[in-house]
Amino acid sequence: MQEFNNCLRKAEIGSDEIGLAYANRSACFFKMGMLQECLMDIEMAKKFNYPSHLMHALNARVSKCKRLLDEGQINANLCKVREPVLSFNEHEEYPGVADCLEIRQNDKFGRHIITTCDLQIGQTILVEEPFSIARDSRVDCDRCLGCFKYAQNFIACNNCVGRCLHCNEDCMTNSFHHIVCNSLIAEEYEEKIELIVKTIFSAIVAFSDIDRLMHTVELLLDGKGTSDLTNAHLILHFVHVVVNQVSLNEYVKLETGSRMDFGFFLPYAHGMYPFGCYMNHSCLPNVCSMSVDNRLICKVIRPIKKGQQIFRSYLNPSNLNYINPLTDRKLDVEKQLHMKCECNLCSGDAWTMLHDKSLKQSPFWKDATAAANMTEKAFRALSNETKEYYENRTIKFLEMYDRFHPLNDTLCVQWALIVMWNVLATHF
Ligand SMILES: [Zn+2]
Ligand SMILES: [Zn+2]
Ligand SMILES: [Zn+2]
Prior knowledge:
This protein has 16 helices and 12 strands. The protein has 428 residues and is of the alpha+beta class. Bound molecules: zinc ion (3 copies).
């Protein structure tokens, strides 16, 4: 599918290749059980000069699709994905935020987030849309550059060199594509510049006119803040764009047929999240960040008491899988985050605990690590009940032994849970 998307980006405008790319991509959608998408791509192929002597093959695929749809096989694969939902009511002021979270400020932590009730492992406390977002420079084209959904009926812009792919005109407008279309930014891709440009444009749109925007900037520079989180936040971000951006990562298998916990995470986009960006960093976080299309999701990975601060890790989630020797790791953290970390791990307090004890004798150990030992394919094939069983046993293990965290064993089970959640939330 990636190859056909690439073909769409690079094919000469008006050539047969465009029709062929749509037609071949429709075959991928068919194989994946995404029948509606398959039919849409066949329509596009016909619109874009698909050779008439090959048309019988496309028509046969249309009939097969329609027959399967009549039998009720509607996007079988898509139904299995777990859509992220808040475990609490939505906050009155902040969209996508659980109503138990509040922003606080003090000298030590600056602005930070606390919870007003006890939180349990597995609860979802953030499902936030970005204020602005830009793709990672390493990502090719298998996500829409507007909504960052995966495997959609992407269309190519008709004006660009190395054309960008979007789901439709709406996504193209939302991603401010007309601003970067055929510009240097699109050719010599630099995500930080794009993120700044998009943040500024989003700001202008949010303020309706440039005078109001400038007035707010002046107030802020004078230290007279505004209570509006979105507006105040974005001004701060103009200045701190590099530090405050949140990376969206996707789970990648090491190789086909390898165990699920042998995977790693790669960034595909970087965004500005009005609320999420106020969560401080810890190398021993109590929530994990996940990404579903353009949204930032935070799920609780350690029990959190009422009044405690929420910490997520700013490092690539793969760092939660293993802990390097203390000095290497501290250097690594400083290099990646441009800051010194004072968490329990970096200050050395928790470091000595890592090898203290083995929990492999626990009656919960086998179930808690069972899913992680499977291949992704085998895990996906399980019934929903079995998947939930393994998820719950993993959570139970982490709740029971939280007082020992961080042991290598608790870190390993935490990693298993994070990988499991990521696989459950994505199609492929
Ligand atoms: Zn889109
Ligand atoms: Zn364009
Ligand atoms: Zn740290």
